[in-house]
Design a protein that fits this description.
- The protein is α+β, with helices and mostly antiparallel strands.
- It contains 18 helices and 15 strands.
- The strands form 4 sheets. A 6-stranded mixed sheet has the order 10-11-12-13-14-15.
Amino acid sequence: MFSRDSLARAQRELTPAQARHLALKAQGFTATLPQRPNRGHLKRLLNQLGVLQIDSVNAVVRSHYLPLFARLGDYPTALLDEAAWGRNRHRQLFEYWGHEASLLPLSRYPALVWRMQQARRGIGIYKGLARFGRERQDVIERVLANVQSHGPVSAGALNTRDTPAGQWWDWSDEKHALEWLFAAGKVTVAARRGFERLYDLPERVLPASVLQQPVPTPLEAHRQLLYQAAEALGVATEKDLRDYYRLTPKATREALATLLEEASLTPVSVAGWRQTAYLVGDPVIPRRLDASALLSPFDSLIWYRERTERLFGFHYRLEFYVPPHRRVFGYYVMPFLHRGRLIARVDLRTRRETRELAILALHPEPGVDFDADALETLADRLESLARWLGLAQLHLACERDLARRLTSHWPVDSQRRLALT
């Protein structure tokens, strides 16, 4: 721990290890995994992270489930479903544009109303949707009236198009209208059927205590979001803070200046970082971290790739949409965090028809000494992931020597079969 006085002197410089430990601690990677994760564990972690990214890729499991598994272990996914889409007192989250499509704690709702107000004016949404909002208010009003009368409803239930849909963003008019209404805060996601959204009015979905809170000014909302980002990141540059809730440079600089002026954030330098970093308060920096986990490609620890390289020296890119012949590491690559460092990439796939978790590739980072401890820990994490997903076996389909060595470190008491190809 260092004192406020020492921070004030010449912008205290953190070592890369200290910055990494602060980041991991802030992201919830220091605590021992609870034996039986419950609603309390889930609520505390959701408030700590502040946002879970949602994505349609389902190669292992839907992405929003994985960050909690990395930090809590074998938790019941029904707890997250209940927190996100339950219609009772256990509901803790709402869907909106936080960091891309996201689940966010209900306490964040007032701080995002400015974004909804901007969307109504066509600001902060993609051009096609903004143009639809300007030109097709007739469809938007018709769809809103339908939601008011019949919600919760899906886009498919409202679709009047009589031609087949194309690929990607070939939305019907009704889907465009619902997306505009969602961005504008006129409707929200009441539930999901599979992965399909069911839309309803916010007043029928979210607690009145949330909707009746005072709406902060855009400046105050940005201050709140930046402060929350700083808490969730541990130590972060302006661009890191901005990226967490996808804020604009101008609004970020204005809000950041006020937070610094009142000393809510403290500027520090990190050895090797070109930009000034910021942190909250006077943090205790862990001297060592034993956290190990398989990370979703959409985990908030690593989703800003520039920051991932600064913290871990780990160059990471998504390869979902890259043609197979151009992929370097694989389609769905989960970084392996071991003892606070990213030391490998594992290309995984859930094969639901055979109830197996396929390990398609294992790539160690260059120069990493992949010792017995790392292999044993990775084997344990893969076994835990398979068990949590309800899969009957693991299938090792990688011919690398490191992957073969993994078999000798499989848990002795495991009841699962490690199939080799």
